């Protein structure tokens, strides 16, 4: 097979199907890191942008948050999708820049501080045991994604928000439709209008939650958001439901993808699984390696506010840049043997959570969930193997495995 041209390789980052084909994706990204680390991309249906594939360049952009802003294009979408989203007036933390971003981030910050997360650990450990028991009760063969990894983190985030467990099927449907909007199996329909309706349905759900918490505040994150004020003024309805939508989707799908991808990595690398099982003290390092390996958030976008140079490439004011986290986390200049899964990898400078002022608000919670689940699973897992072909979500934003058929023995 001949290597793709630089233009073809650059267009790969805008192709959802490429993220469901890791061999193809990484071949293109490896080529870009080597020959054109800041590449101009002109893909059909998209407004032009620069693909940034080197770790150092990604970090340079993340550090210069005044020079490279989230607004107006924080996520890669088609030109038509960008128009429709603007019409709906969505504005979450990922759409904001300072000082607005800093003020809005503070609304839920206390829920992700160490003291609060420490209080949550017992509940997370309980949910981890429930889901390992669910795996045991499945009878030795199941789709790990459907049985475990989609529901465990969703139960955790619903506990934080104070949403009743009876609403889990509805929340699962809404989050999967949003994150899977580019995947033929998960999307509501192939029409853009119907995909936007999935977002509007989530907004309607959280509008009801907002009204309930304003009328009868409770001790949960939903009440904190519903009754928050910024600069002495209450959040308007769009800002409130946008906040919920971000917490629900980001708090669920990224962790779900990492747990599923981590499980596959442990199956594909049995020696590493044995190392971790024999020494659970490696779990912090293994957790970081799973996050790097999966990189559930594939990319974010930034826009240059003035003319500048990045990696030797001139960038004009108004140009958009795609920060390819999945490429940065395989950068040969930063990671020794980057395509090796190593549960003891030290000094793991992955960019899966971003960096700087936009560093993931829920990073510590995600780490706790991943660690809790595998700390419960591995001592009880006697054997495990694939029972079919794993399948990845087609996406350009957030995603991972949508099917992981496994066969196993479990205490």
UniProtKB/TrEMBL annotation:
CDD domains, sorted: CYP142-like
Keywords, comma-separated and alphabetical: Heme, Iron, Metal-binding, Monooxygenase, Oxidoreductase
Ranges annotated as spanning the membrane: none
InterPro entries: Cyt_P450 (IPR001128), Cyt_P450_B (IPR002397), Cyt_P450_CS (IPR017972), Cyt_P450_sf (IPR036396)
Swiss-Prot/TrEMBL cofactor(s): heme
Membership in a protein family: Belongs to the cytochrome P450 family.
Annotated protein name in UniProt: Cytochrome P450
Organism: Rhodococcus gannanensis
